[in-house]
Amino acid sequence: MKKIVTFGEIMLRLAPNGYNRFFQDDQLQATFGGGEANVAVSLANYGMRAAFVTRLPSHAIGQGAVNALRALGVDTSHIVRGGDRVGIYYLEKGASQRGSVCIYDRAYSAIQQAKAEDFDWDSIFEDAVWFHFTGITPALGGNLVEICLQACQAAKAKGIKISCDLNYRGKLWSRAQARAAMTELCRYVDVCIANEEDAKDIFSIEAADSDIYGGKLNKSGYESVARQLAGQFGFEKVAITLRTSLSASDNNWAGMLYDGTECHVSKEYHLHIVDRVGGGDSFAGGLIYALLSGKSAQDTIEFAVAASALKHSVEGDFNRVTCNEVEKLASGDGSGRVQR
Hints:
Blueprint: E1 3-7, E2 11-15, E3 29-33, H1 35-45, E4 49-53, E5 55-56, H2 60-71, E6 80-81, E7 88-92, E8 101-105, H3 121-124, E9 128-134, H4 136-139, H5 144-157, E10 161-165, H6 175-185, E11 191-194, H7 198-203, H8 219-233, E12 237-245, E13 250-258, E14 263-265, E15 269-272, H9 279-292, H10 297-311, H11 323-330
Parallel strand pairs: 1-4, 1-9, 2-7, 5-6, 9-10, 10-11, 11-12
Antiparallel strand pairs: 2-3, 7-8, 12-13, 13-14, 13-15
Helix pairs in contact: 1-9, 9-10, 10-11
């Protein structure tokens, strides 16, 4: 079975019930999530051997994160134990014209205080065929840029394919810091994943005639973005998610895959959103699965977008859907009829 390694931070997610505002009642629901962990869960759901690498404390909260991943079939054997904190994020889900709010409390987390010698990449990458990380991980500070670089170098030396979701987070680092770090890391990346804003925020590569806040996306402009990214870094493939935000509750959702020669655009879905956090990660998981399964470029982008469309209907960070459910939607059955 093909082994995929993902590396990053898993956090404790605390969220009010339903669409309540913070402290509208006296309860917060506790679950776990984080970019690369979410990708590992998706891949495990599709029957792949997914290993997640991070650093977590040995106490009960850290073990809770490990147990959540194990329960969904993720290989946690390479998780390093140490430190005192599990990062936290507070999520208030938006609805209608009220946007979602995400508040981070992740300073001094176990992974942020990791050292390069904590990770034996030769051992971690044994039997691996794919390595995935996001731009969130080097943004955490400390030694994480260096650690990500060492991971990429070790993966490249073993001939392992590398994917990176650019995932710019302005609350974690500046555009200048992101550009400096990601320019170096992207030299090792084979498959680049981005959304409508990432290429602009990090590399000042912008789609013409698009207004993401006004609900206008020019898909031909994003073809130019993909070609420019591939030209600058030598990416084999560039995948871009295309979200038209009509409101916090309703989005149109599609994607594009540039295969080095031409762009392939998926069908567009109208989403009525239950929970959009992890939508990009589920797209990445679907993309990696489809590429490793040998699907055509068009079928790959259709699978990735369908996987992500389904995630928007699932509470929590993790995309708890099966390969058959994704294939069904990708083939055109989006009726949502009861399965009996």
